[in-house]
């Protein structure tokens, strides 16, 4: 066998794959990996079927179907008062993960420093390293998992090429506010060569009357930013792997150079179906209330348990501290719950470079009421 030199020698199988496999092996309720267990809209599925039946089954244009890019442009203008040229500033990708990969690969060169915030979604750092960049890990402040902007200002140097933010935040459910964006805007203005990669895949899943603080709401900041979104999260269709990226034309030109050699294009019929479905705003504007009801149901059902909820203002993940229940490390606790109590979660330490363990587990509540209630009963018995 030929000798191999791994580019990611310390990267193993994703924690999501590990816990979902364990859940399946032990017939556990899977609240680990973030996917809904309820149906996609029958109307949306019907639209996909319509376009497939009408012959739209060949390659889409590399940047995406024009109708979808144009409808995204309409939505961005309505939501953020931001104009994005559908021809040059919007690209449809095979999920948000591809958009993140394309962006980092296109824009990060060897020895470029990239600031990210732990606990961080696990795809960021490996892609930075694959591109020869240097991940610079900062830690979110507890208990609210907020960013220490004074620390960020001190960390930005001439080597800093990019800052990655994520709001609403996976895994903690925290959000960035207008004040956060103003601090980030100030930093960006002081460093005109700095790029901001904003992971906004849970943009529509935000609670408690908060407004999503997109980088696109801030004109000067948007000029230095790349925003990534996900239709899979929005329309409960994670398996369709359709997302999009928005960026100024000169930046997008570089991102598309990578995109064309990663997937080239995305499912044509699905794009056309989403374009038509987006024309009815209520298909996405009702999501905050829809998911807040599920969050509140989950929290209400576990209020008498020994678990302590971490405030969650967005995403469909609820983090729970178990420090009053057990001293087990969080990975061990996650395994114990899965194998012994038939409920699977994600240990938060998996999102830290240093594997910091605060005795917190993440649970996905994007489930039907029966699943939520069944899972809560188990947690209340522990």
Automatic annotation (TrEMBL):
UniProt keyword Protein biosynthesis present: no
Pfam families linked to this entry: Aminotran_1_2 (PF00155)
Any GO MF annotation of the entry: pyridoxal phosphate binding
**Where does the Aminotransferase class I/classII large domain start and stop, copy by copy?**
29-378
Q: Name one GO cellular component term.
A: cytoplasm
The entry's family comment says: Belongs to the class-I pyridoxal-phosphate-dependent aminotransferase family.
Q: Which NCBIfam families match?
A: PRK09082.1
- Protein name per the record: Aminotransferase class I/II-fold pyridoxal phosphate-dependent enzyme
Organism listed in the record: Fulvivirga marina
């Amino acid at each position: 066998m030929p000798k191999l030199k791994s580019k990611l020698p310390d990267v193993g199988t994703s924690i999501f794959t590990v816990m979902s496999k364990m859940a399946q092996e032990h017939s556990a309720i899977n609240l680990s990996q973030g996917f809904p267990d309820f149906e996609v809209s029958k109307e949306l599925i019907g639209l996909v079927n319509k376009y497939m039946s009408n012959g739209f089954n060949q390659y889409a244009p590399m940047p995406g179907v024009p109708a979808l890019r144009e409808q995204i442009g309409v939505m961005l203008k309505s939501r953020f008062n931001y104009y994005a040229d559908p021809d040059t500033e919007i690209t449809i990708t095979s999920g948000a993960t591809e958009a993140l990969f394309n962006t980092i690969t296109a824009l990060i060169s060897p020895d470029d420093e990239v600031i990210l915030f732990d606990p961080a979604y696990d795809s960021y750092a490996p892609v930075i390293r694959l591109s020869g960049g240097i991940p610079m890990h900062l830690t979110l402040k507890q208990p609210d998992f907020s960013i220490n902007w004074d620390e960020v200002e001190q960390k930005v140097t001439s080597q800093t090429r990019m800052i990655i933010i994520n709001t609403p935040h996976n895994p903690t459910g925290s959000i960035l506010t207008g004040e956060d964006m103003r601090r980030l805007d100030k930093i960006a203005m002081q460093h005109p060569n700095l790029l901001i990669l904003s992971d906004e895949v849970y943009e529509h899943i935000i609670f408690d009357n908060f407004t999503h603080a997109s980088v696109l709401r801030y004109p000067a900041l948007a000029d230095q930013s790349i925003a990534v979104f996900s239709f899979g999260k929005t329309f409960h269709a994670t398996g369709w792997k359709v997302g999009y990226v928005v960026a100024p034309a000169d930046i997008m030109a570089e991102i598309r150079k990578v995109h064309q050699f990663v997937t080239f294009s995305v499912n044509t019929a699905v794009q056309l179906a989403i374009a038509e479905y987006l024309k009815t705003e209520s298909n996405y504007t009702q999501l905050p209330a829809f998911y807040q009801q599920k969050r509140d149901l989950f929290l209400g059902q576990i209020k008498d348990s020994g678990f302590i909820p971490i405030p969650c203002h967005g995403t469909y993940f609820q983090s729970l501290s178990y420090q009053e229940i057990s001293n087990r490390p969080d990975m061990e606790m996650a395994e114990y719950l899965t194998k012994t109590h038939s409920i699977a979660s994600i240990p938060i330490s998996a999102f830290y470079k240093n594997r910091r363990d605060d005795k917190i587990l993440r649970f996905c509540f994007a489930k039907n009421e029966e699943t939520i209630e069944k899972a809560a009963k188990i947690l209340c018995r522990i």
